[in-house]
Automatic annotation (TrEMBL):
Protein family: Belongs to the organic radical-activating enzymes family.
Organism listed in the record: Holtiella tumoricola
Coiled coil: none
One Pfam family in the UniProt entry: Radical_SAM
Record-given protein name: Glycyl-radical enzyme activating protein
Domain of life of the source: Bacteria
Domain Radical SAM core residues, every copy: 20-297
Residue stretches making up the 4Fe-4S ferredoxin-type domain: 51-80, 84-113
Catalytic activity annotation: glycyl-[protein] + reduced [flavodoxin] + S-adenosyl-L-methionine = glycin-2-yl radical-[protein] + semiquinone [flavodoxin] + 5'-deoxyadenosine + L-methionine + H(+)
Gene3D superfamilies from the UniProt entry: Aldolase class I (3.20.20.70)
Keyword Cell inner membrane attributed: no
Lineage of origin: Bacteria, Bacillati, Bacillota, Clostridia, Lachnospirales
Necessary cofactors: [4Fe-4S] cluster
Length: 314
């Protein structure tokens, strides 16, 4: 039988001292791979489950050695009125690593690595005293962390064995079986609800929301603590009917603790050239701080006035 700690998965970052990914100070482990293609995504490096490449545009001197060796045409040096720039498009990359080996500046890096459960947990445990003092722990994020379901489950199981508080930030776009398997090892789900209109959901994420909402209801039926985290994109889902539908879900589901809106930012746009993902992602208008605060205040008022609140107060 496979020893749990030796199970491997592909991750692209382990970020320390996170304060927005659940309670207290946390270490967030980012797993590669996502079944959705949200047009506003800012974690583009997490879309593919495979280990990829990253271009350090500061280090690159535009010498052209990578484009000479790449038989798939992934590296283009483009000269125009604004100067010379390096465009990397990994659509046809076969991961031969020839460009990495040829670059004299070490400007092409590997994005992502395969790690065992033991390796990840060992790194997470370095900050145990911070978790203990702040009520923090480990959060799994992505990509969609539950896409690597068996690895995510093994990580969470091991984290609980060593006494860590666990959160999973999920889009819910996985099978019901995966949700049910990981649930016993998760203290808090940070559950993304991106759209409440089916046609809009399909248009902007590439998938139906039906399984996602079903998984949200399954977690609620299992009595798991859930925080809804909802990206709000100007011109896409900043409408009153969407806010009302979010509050209706909150009212319906006993174990949903609250709704946190996540205003759009455009960090993903700069990553397109860095990770060779020319064909993904769109840019939208970035809301002002006042506008974003107005959305959250609006939701908070609706939550405050909701039937669920009145029931709790009785
Ligand atoms: S690793 Fe990909 S981008 Fe680099 S040379 Fe090989 S095919 Fe081209
Ligand atoms: S080989 Fe390295 S320095 Fe030269 S163009 Fe490619 S990435 Fe830039």
């Amino acid at each position: 039988m496979e020893y749990l700690g030796q199970k491997t998965g592909v991750i692209f970052n382990i970020q320390k001292f996170c304060i927005d990914d659940g309670p207290g100070i946390r270490t967030t482990v980012f797993l590669k791979g996502c079944p959705l293609r949200c047009t506003w995504c800012h974690n583009l490096e997490g879309l593919s489950q495979k280990v990829g490449l990253e271009l350090d545009t500061i280090q690159c001197t535009h010498c052209g050695k990578c484009s000479e060796v790449c038989k798939e045409g992934c590296h283009q040096l483009i000269q125009d009125l604004s100067g010379i720039r390096h465009e990397m498009d990994l659509t046809h990359c076969i991961h031969c690593k020839a460009c990495l080996e040829q670059c004299p500046q070490a400007a092409i890096l590997v994005c992502g690595s395969e790690k065992t459960v033991d390796e990840v947990i060992e790194e997470v445990l370095v900050d145990r005293k911070f978790y203990e003092n702040s009520g923090g722990g480990m959060t799994l994020s992505g990509g969609e962390p539950l896409l690597q379901g068996a690895f995510a489950q093994a990580l969470l199981e091991r984290a609980k064995e060593v006494g860590l508080h666990t959160c999973v930030e999920t889009s819910g776009a996985v099978s019901a079986q995966v949700i049910e398997k990981v649930a016993p090892f998760v203290d808090l789900f940070l559950f993304d609800i991106k759209e409440t209109d089916e046609a809009q959901h399909i248009h902007y994420t590439g998938q139906s929301y039906k399984q996602i909402h079903e998984n949200l209801r399954t977690l609620n039926a299992l009595g798991k603590a859930i925080r809804m985290r909802c990206p709000i994109i100007p011109g896409v889902n900043d409408r009153e009917s969407h806010f009302d539908a979010l509050v209706a879900l909150y009212e319906e589901l006993e174990y949903v603790e609250g709704i946190q809106l996540m205003p759009y930012h455009d960090l993903g746009i700069g990553k397109k050239s860095r990770y060779g993902l020319k064909k993904v992602g769109e840019s939208f208008r970035v809301p002002s701080q006042e506008e974003a605060q107005g959305w959250q205040d609006n939701i908070d008022r609706k939550v405050e006035a909701s039937h669920k609140k009145q029931l709790i107060n009785k």
